Automatic annotation (TrEMBL):
Keywords in alphabetical order: Cell membrane, Membrane, Transmembrane, Transmembrane helix, Transport
Compartments where located: Cell membrane
GO cellular component, one term: plasma membrane
Family listed: Belongs to the binding-protein-dependent transport system permease family.
The species this protein was found in: Pigmentiphaga aceris
Residues annotated as domain ABC transmembrane type-1: 97-312
DNA damage is among the record's keywords: no
Pfam assignment, any one: BPD_transp_1
PROSITE patterns from the UniProt entry: ABC_TM1
Name under which the protein is recorded: ABC transporter permease
Length: 322
């Protein structure tokens, strides 16, 4: 396990450097800059003043010098300054991070539990009405865009039934601490988490169903049945445990992509997370924030993949021997 961690650490540094260089180059190729937006908002037309602002933000230097300076700044956890948020980029991201992490982990946990259970149910009742129903619902949610699901759920549960709030994270004027505050956040979180999680739940359902059916045909499962174990014992003790391996792999890969789905969901529900910050930063060409989010997202994805590898070892210790 220590060797695995050491290998991961060796891989992280060049990968992060590659992410920084790639995103920096892409941002340089994008039309316009935050200086254009800032001078337009402030109605600054004086060329001398614009050139002074360009020098202030280091935009008068060659691109490779800006890149080297940025890499040096990232090494000291300095991701630059956001003129839009009027604060350091790292502080702007960290202020939105708790809301995004809450949405991401809630939605992915719901998706993992519901999708895995539905996949096991479909596999255990293969070629029956249960299997057809679960597979059809999974296909529907797999094909439906997250923002469309969010709008439909809002119309049903917020507008028509009035059970849940339309958007935001807290009710204005409501308690912000204690059980009342937690319940208020949970009510606001329900629809965004379900909207984001349904797509991933559909994916887990399809993968889990196929994996359970494949493992059920292996020799050790047949041997378990031959020993006289009941069907539920064979299913949960031998089949599901081994069938979880591809689902855990998928979970690790999707945790890095949940942020992309969270952007549209946060926009629909007005959820104050990194997705909303990224969308606002792209629209205002606040590129230091965009670049900072990309870098931190890459680090987050690498960490999650390392945790998934460790979970792999826990589920199947034979992997370590290979």
């Amino acid at each position: 396990m220590k060797s695995l961690l050491f290998r991961r650490v060796r891989q992280v540094i060049p990968l992060i450097l590659a992410v920084i260089v790639l995103n920096f180059v892409l941002i340089q190729l994008a039309p316009g800059s935050f200086l254009d937006v800032m001078s337009s908002d402030a109605q600054i037309t004086d060329p001398v003043m614009i050139e002074r602002m360009r020098a202030t933000y280091g935009m008068d230097q060659p691109v490779y010098v800006q890149l080297l300076k940025y890499i040096g700044s990232v090494a000291t956890l300095d991701l630059g300054y956001s003129y839009r948020q009027n604060m350091p980029v790292l502080d702007a991201i960290l202020s939105r991070l708790p809301a995004t992490l809450l949405l991401m982990f809630t939605s992915i946990a719901l998706a993992f539990v519901a999708g895995s259970a539905a996949g096991v149910l479909a596999a255990a009742r293969v070629r029956t009405a249960w299997d057809n129903t679960v597979s059809t619902i999974a296909l529907l949610f797999f094909a439906a865009p997250g923002f469309w699901l969010g709008i439909m759920l809002t119309i049903l549960f917020s507008v028509q039934l009035g059970w849940l709030p339309v958007g935001g994270m807290r009710t204005v004027g409501a308690a912000t601490d204690g059980l009342a505050g937690a319940i208020d956040v949970a009510r606001h979180l329900a629809l965004p988490a379900i909207s984001l999680g349904l797509f991933y739940a559909a994916t887990y359902t399809r993968v889990m169903r196929a994996s359970v059916l494949e493992v059920a045909r292996l020799d050790f499962v047949r041997a378990a049945r031959a020993r006289g174990l009941r069907g539920t014992q064979v299913l949960w003790r031998h089949t599901v445990r081994n069938a979880l391996l591809p689902v855990v792999t998928l979970l690790g890969l999707q945790l890095g992509t949940v942020l992309g789905g969270a952007i549209s969901v946060e926009a629909v529900f007005g959820w104050p997370g990194i997705g909303s910050l990224l969308l606002d930063s792209v629209m205002s060409r606040d590129y230091p924030v965009v670049l900072g989010i990309m870098v931190l997202s890459s680090v987050f994805t690498l960490l999650i993949n390392t945790v998934v590898d460790l979970a792999y070892l826990k589920l199947d210790p034979r992997i370590l021997a290979r």
